[in-house]
Amino acid sequence: MPLPSTVDVAIIGAGAAGLGAANTLKHSGLSILVLEARDRVGGRAHTIKAAPDVVFDVGCGWLHSADQNTFVPIAERLNFELDKTLPPWRERAYGKAFPQVERDDFVRALDEFYDRIEDAAQSGKDGPANLYLEPGNRWNPMIDAISTYVNGCELDQVSILDFDAYEDTNLNWRVRRGYGALIAAYATQIPVALNCDVRLIDHSGKRVRIESSRGTIEADRVIVTVPTDLIATEAIRFHPARSDKVDAARGLPLGLADKVTLALDEPEALPKDGNLRGATMRTEMGTYHIRPFGQPCIEGFFGGRFARQLEDAGDGALAAHSIDEIVSFLGNDFRRKLKPLTESRWAHDPFARGSYSHALPGHAGKRAVLAAPVDGRLFFAGEATSPHFFSTAHGARDSGERAAKEVLAGSLRK
């Protein structure tokens, strides 16, 4: 079906932010339409059946800060079962590859590093996080590896003020049927135009004109929820140009966190929901979640420059490296027990170009700049605009709700 010619509010992007905005506006009396470039909703949240007995979240998988996560009540309302098992990180390592005494030493070094960041941030002066590594500490490469999982990038690219602004209550739950499946269900009864790649937002006239791969639509107001790299590279252009938004987006690039899932024969030989990693003393490493939900699989997780190298090496490179690394930890017998199922390639996804945002050193204030409305007609949401829950799906959803309320406040003033 063709696009309508006009709508009160156009929302660009059907990820968590766009759906948060649409759900907030759906009973407002305003006509709304979500324009989504992909052939599905969810954005960087996507659940698939990797095998008949393996549910895999290709994107986000953890409800971080679950006691404050607004997707928790949504999951309960939509009858999605929540799993409150402790997450497989920090002290929950398995096997001899990372002995307990070394794990304790590593966690201590990691916590001391975080304390130094927190202390330094109190000054209000920004800088790269790698400056706060203890010189000569043997765990520094692995602390950098943790950053690639948490931030999607190495510490030299992380603003300490932004890092300190992130809020985490250390309560992390999962969705048994998949976080991506929950977010897709959250789109029910929301009008969405799929395969609708927006290229231009022309706000030069009385109404905003949006040009897309499916035609042109006009709107009184537009909520932009796309990943920062699409704004930074001007894959979506503004007319007149919005150099403030492009500059802000460039200061908030998407890092990279990729996942792979491997089928596991004889799964009962390993504990469910365990963590596997070695004391490898290097940043270029994976971390492995053994039998998530008790499923017969192992999930691998990679971040930063190493994840990008593996993506660039082509399909199957994440799986091949994962199998080699797991075999080095568990023994050669495991090679025959592991089979690649699927892997993410977020850097090569044209509508994402990465996983989640981090502020470059000196750019912590750019989240507020990106979030600010323009002329009461252009509004901005997405995880990168969240002041404290950036890089999370619930931070994205909440930002969409915030932008929708800004739209409604403007409507009331007219």
Task: Describe this protein's structure.
The protein has about 425 residues and is α/β, with parallel strands linked by helices. Strand 1, helix 1 and strand 2 form a beta-alpha-beta unit. The protein is built from twelve helices and 18 strands. The chain has two domains: about 170 residues, FAD/NAD(P)-binding domain (3-Layer(bba) Sandwich), CATH 3.50.50.60; about 180 residues, Polyamine Oxidase, Chain A, domain 2. The model has no long low-confidence stretch (mean pLDDT about 95). Helices cover about 30% and strands about 20% of the residues. Strands 1, 2, 8, 9, 10, 11, 12 and 18 form an eight-stranded mixed sheet that branches. It has a five-stranded antiparallel sheet with strand order 14-15-16-13-17.
Describe the structure in brief.
The protein is α/β, with parallel strands linked by helices and 414 residues long.
Main beta-sheet strand count, sense and barrel state = 8 strands, mixed
CATH class of the largest domain: Alpha Beta
- Unreliable runs, pLDDT <50, ≥5 residues? none
What is the helix/strand order?
A: EHEEEEHEHHHEHEEEEHEHEEEEHHEHEH
Strand tally: 18
Radius of gyration equals: 22 Å
Give the DSSP E fraction (strand runs of 2 or more residues): 15-25%
What is the name of the CATH topology of the largest domain?
Answer: Polyamine Oxidase, Chain A, domain 2
User: How many structural units, i.e. domains?
Assistant: 2
The share of residues in helices is 25-40%
Shape by Cα distribution: globular
